[in-house]
Design goal:
By secondary structure, the protein is α/β, with parallel strands linked by helices. Helix content is about 30%, strand content about 15%. The protein has a 5-stranded mixed β-sheet.
């Protein structure tokens, strides 16, 4: 028995030494942390997180409009009676405050990380505000119609997208670019904007007149570009 042990023990030790030597050639995996943009970063990473502003520009998506920041509690300083503009002139398309029947005065960051933007403060040009998300199937269905009509109407209508509860802004920008959306996109990661509007589901499209009043809501996906053109004509007086 002692002889057997003497023969086996050296073999076991030799095998362990080979195993240790083999493991030593494998590099340890560095822990990966999430950056503020949602892109992975780590000690061994050679590439920084994505430049969202650069990505937006490369995709041909317009920069967000500059607006005053709303009050800290998310409420405007008061809308004008009858839904008119408050606390400012409409000459530059931006006023402080919100129409009584207008968009909520919420600070929504631009999807590229800039901002914040208060959509309720925009005046002077009728708006189409579309709430969407990459995880929303019907949003994908209606996307081409928004792209087509936004190109056709040009400067006569301001289109704005509101990306709701998307975890990855870079992926959301890529989605918007792939749909041919060239208009500004803001983010609503906590559904604050949608919640203040009472939006239970998306997509939803709002038509807002030049005075900042919501004149029509379309819940669900648009079914054609002609449908959207008809809504613009009937509720905003756009087109023939």
């Amino acid at each position: 028995m002692r002889g057997i042990r003497r023969r086996v023990l050296p073999a076991v030790l030799a095998g362990c030494l080979l195993l240790i030597a083999g493991c030593a050639t494998t590099q340890p995996v560095q822990p990966v942390a999430s950056s503020s943009t949602g892109a992975p970063t780590g000690a061994g990473s050679a590439t920084p997180g994505p430049d969202l502003a650069g990505k937006r520009q490369a995709l041909g998506i317009a920069a967000c409009p500059t607006t005053p920041r709303p009050a800290a509690d998310g409420a405007a300083s008061g809308g004008a009676a009858g839904g008119g503009a408050a606390n400012g002139a409409a000459g530059d398309g931006v006023v402080k405050g919100a129409a009584a029947d207008g968009l909520p005065a919420v600070a929504t960051p631009c999807l590229d990380g800039s901002g914040p933007v208060d959509l309720s403060a925009l005046r002077g040009t009728p708006m189409v505000v579309n709430l969407w998300a990459t995880w929303c199937g019907p949003c994908r269905t209606e996307a081409p119609y928004l792209a087509e009509v936004s190109r056709q109407t040009g400067a006569s209508v301001r289109f704005v997208g509101v990306d709701v509860a998307d975890p990855d802004p870079a992926a959301a920008l890529e989605f918007a670019g792939a749909q041919g959306w060239t208009y500004a996109q803001v983010a609503d990661p906590e559904r604050t904007f949608a919640g203040r509007l009472g939006v239970a589901g998306i997509p939803q499209t709002l038509l807002v007149d030049a005075d900042g009043r919501i004149v029509y809501r379309h819940a669900g996906a648009l079914t054609s570009a002609d449908q959207l053109r008809g809504l613009l004509h009937d509720h905003l007086g756009i087109g023939e």
